[in-house]
Amino acid sequence: MSSSCRIAIVGGGLAGLAAAHALKTFGMKTEVFETAPALGEIGAAVNVSPQAVKALQAIGVGDKVAAVGTTSPGIYTRNMQTGEFLEFNDRHKAAARYGAPYYTFHRADLLDALVSGLDRSAIYLGHRLTGMEERSDRIVLAFANGAEVEAEIVIGADGVRSVVRQVLYGDENPTYTGQMVWRSLLNGGDVPEEVLEPGGRIQWVGPGCHLLAYYIRGKKLVNIVTQEDTDKWVEEGWSTRGYPDEMRLSFPNPEPRLEKLLSLVTECSKWGLFTRPLTQNWGRGRIQLIGDAAHAMLPNAGQGACQAFEDAYILGRWLEACRDPAEAFANFRRIRVPRVHGVQRLSISNARFKHMRDAAAQKESIDAGKSSVHGNSDWVWGYDLIGEWNKEPSVPTAYAA
Predict the structure, then answer these.
(1) Tell me: the pLDDT tens digits for 320-330?
(2) 289, 290, 305, 317: which is closest to 386 by C-alpha?
(3) Cβ pair 34, 123 in contact under 8 A
(4) Quick one: which of 104, 136, 197, 339 is 20 to 30 A from 76 by CA?
């Protein structure tokens, strides 16, 4: 791809900024167009597993993200109502096995790390995309502020409500899953250490729900994120105000450690989880979708941001390798779609497993080697995207198309 080719990235979140770094790494200049008046990520925390850390290292931000990430020792899982230990998912061993750590971040810190090193003059804030016209050799982007931009390549990284996707494929009707999420952020010093013992990262599982709590920014903050089955309608979004007492009622008869943690919540947010059909409609011609714009997924495998970072690296490699952007994007989709669909299916499978109503059967399954944390994740975390960026990925039969 010519270094003089004008490349527009729509969306200045984690996916868009990672793509900007990846293309910079491979000798291409980009312009980023972001709706918000300032760069920022809604939400408290994000997890990045070893293969995605390698992607970040390969696009030149490894040191920056290491400086703001908290290394995760692993998840200690208990029964929500009895406190019984169920399993420990050791991430230090995983890091040694896969050659990279598992990090947790405050989203704002990770975003700042991705912004650093980019040309800020090529990041245009306050640009909300309203329309897009495809021509034979370029795409014309129209923004709400009246600006028009012509680009030879467009990368849609504008999230689950992607305007780029809407222009390409029309309105989609996401389906409510019958599951909702609560989120809260606590000062680490307010949480007794014994609540999160022994490793500072605890998951409680129970009938129809689970709750995860862990430190970020060292031990300055504790992030709480939950998921529960419900017959109540909850709107899609990231910042709907919730009420702590209502949140606590979602987890009846909690064991003492969990009860203490929930008692500390004074502010929380909530939102409903919606699914969209697994699709190969990720772009066409000179337009390519990445991240949530292409493949929004449930959070139960911890891979939303990770798959966006894989996208960024592999997209950069294909654009470097091909003179024709349409050919590059077609190859990108050929490699990425099967793997990402597998990860999406894993996320759905994990949600079912974590919310088993029969606690005894759940424990028997765990004892039999079926982890409640990310299922069999070897194929996800062990993926060699650096060496196999141009090879069709291996996906276990259980998660393959």
Answers:
(1) 999 999 999 99
(2) 317
(3) yes
(4) 339
Same domain, 25 and 128: yes
- Which residues does the chain have with pLDDT short of 50? 372-375
Give 148's strand partners.
142
Q: How far apart are CA 110 and CA 309, in angstroms?
A: 12
What was the pLDDT predicted at 373?
45
Q: To which residue do tokens 């409903």 refer?
A: 272
Q: What is the DSSP letter of 394?
A: P
Summary mean pLDDT of the chain: 90
Is the distance from CB of 102 to CB of 110 less than 8 angstroms?
Answer: no
Peptide bond into 254 cis (omega under 30): no
Domain containing residue 105: 7-66+100-172+277-399
Cβ atoms of 375 and 302 closer than 8 Å: no
H/E segment holding residue 224: strand 221-229
Residues labelled as active-site residues: 214
pLDDT tens for 105-127 read 999 999 999 999 899 999 999 99
Tell me what pLDDT residue 374 has. 45
Confidence (pTM): 0.93
**Whether residue 142 sits in one domain with residue 25:** yes
Residue 190: exposure state from Cβ atoms within 10 A (0-12, 13-18, ≥19) = exposed
Q: Is 91 left (phi over 0), alpha (psi -120 to 50) or beta?
A: alpha
The CATH number assigned to the domain holding 155 equals 3.50.50.60
Q: How far is CA 339 from the centre of its chain?
A: 15
